[in-house]
Design goal:
single chain, two-stranded antiparallel ribbon, globular
């Protein structure tokens, strides 16, 4: 069954966030052998809409079309001080009650919060709006430092480009890591960033030779995941002390070296489960987890599913299981 997505637009919409949703979910990628979504653009107002970039758009559908969507996206909101229209809030509550996946980018979290969908949940929004969001919605467990948050069927992301990261995460949930990587390649962006990565990472404006060492180390790790690497190994490869390496690594990536390494290993294991007939034990060794038990532990914590169940769900059709 083709997943259905409704993107909600409105007068004075920020076109970048809306375009992110359209680029990921409404673009035809069948020429690459990739799956497509069935996407509808739903307007809050039934007239010509003025976008913030100085041009006009007209949606083909009103909010009634949201009723047929499995995923509903609010790309942003035009003014965080403005209460969203009651019809929009009602539509989102109805979608939530029937179990749809509810998604916001950037200031769209204010709309979800106004609808009551974030009460008692973890959420995020653009760091510039975090203080006002926390003041207005204290019942929401706001995490202002991450790129995106998933809590049940509700997903919120930080500002602008973090919507791309969340969108590709949703593609991964629907079709697996390999397809999500292909989507990223088609858009010509690096593989998606984890939701736990920092929204804003301090980076020096001037060229720093240590960054070259770090970049080389990141590439080296990708080819040596099967080794039982330690942080000391990474620091030695980058020609730094462990303390300096950890500090500069955090500045460069927004993650601790250990957390980043676990993400690389998990991604490698996902790809092997999707595209090979290696056993779970072999995949655990190849991706650096050491044993199937450790691999299952990390899969359960990160993805909420076992490696075997992941393989069954996301197995490429052109790869046959052995035996």
């Amino acid at each position: 069954m083709v997943p259905t997505v409704a993107v909600i637009v409105f007068d004075r919409i920020s076109i970048f966030e809306a375009a992110i949703a359209c680029e990921v979910f409404a673009h035809d990628r069948s020429d690459m052998g990739l799956p497509n979504y069935s996407t509808v653009i739903c307007s809050v107002e039934r007239e010509l809409l003025q976008a913030t970039a100085g041009f006009q758009i007209r949606a083909d559908h009103g909010l009634e079309a949201v009723a047929g969507a499995g995923t509903v996206i609010v790309p942003n909101w035009r003014d965080i001080a403005e209460e969203p229209p009651p019809e929009l809030l009602k539509t989102l509550r109805q979608a939530d009650r029937r179990g749809a996946r509810i998604v916001s980018f950037c200031s769209g979290a204010f709309v979800l919060a106004a609808a009551g969908l974030l009460d008692g949940r973890r959420a995020t929004t653009h760091w510039m709006y975090a203080a006002e969001f926390a003041r207005r919605y204290p019942q929401v467990e706001l995490d202002p430092d991450v790129l995106y948050v998933a809590d049940g069927n509700v997903y919120t992301s930080a500002g602008s480009a973090a919507g791309l990261d969340l969108s590709l995460h949703l593609v991964e949930l629907d079709f697996g890591a390999e397809v999500a990587n292909m989507f990223a390649r088609r858009i010509v962006i690096p593989p998606r960033r984890s939701g736990g990565q920092a929204q804003y990472v301090e980076r020096p404006m001037a060229s720093n030779p240590s960054d070259d060492h770090l970049s080389a180390t990141l590439a080296w790790v990708g080819g040596n995941l099967a080794r039982q690497l330690t942080i000391a190994d990474l620091a030695e490869h980058a020609h730094m002390s462990q303390r300096t390496f950890a500090r500069r690594f955090q500045t460069l990536t927004g993650l601790s070296p250990w957390r980043w390494l676990m993400q690389q290993r998990l991604g490698a294991a996902q790809a092997l489960l999707e595209t090979t007939d290696l056993s779970v034990e072999q995949i655990a060794e190849t991706s650096g987890f050491g044993s199937a038990a450790v691999l299952r532990l990390h899969f359960g914590r990160r993805l909420g599913i076992s490696p075997t169940a992941y393989r069954v769900h996301f197995r490429r059709r052109d790869v046959q299981l052995a035996g």
